[in-house]
Description:
CATH superfamily: Winged helix-like DNA-binding domain superfamily/Winged helix DNA-binding domain
CATH class: Mainly Alpha
Helix content: 40-55%
Shape: globular
CATH topology: Arc Repressor Mutant, subunit A
Distance between the termini: 32 Å
Strand content: 5-15%
Strand order of the largest sheet: 1-3-2
Largest sheet: 3 strands, antiparallel
Number of domains: 1
Number of strands: 3
Oligomer: single chain
Amino acid sequence: MGSQTFNVAALAGDGIGPEVMREAIKVLRAVEKKFSLRELQNLYEAILGLKLDRRNFRKKFFLTGLLIDTHELEKDVPHRPGRLYRFNKSKYIKLKKNYFGIDF
């Protein structure tokens, strides 16, 4: 994958510091490749600055239809390999026409 440029608006005093911007860029890059639910949850927790319940996170995210199961597992990880997913862009485009949110 080639180098990508992301334009992200940040206003002075909005509370969005460099650490949040770094995590936001990780999210943008993650949606282009395969990822585990563990990685997705870690990104959400870093951005939101709070710990989320694992079961509820998974359940709520699956209900959105935004994940496509690749039928592959993580490789070379020190824990039990998790399934890998891709971001369902077409579903997201449909959903974003009507604002939706995931309450954690």
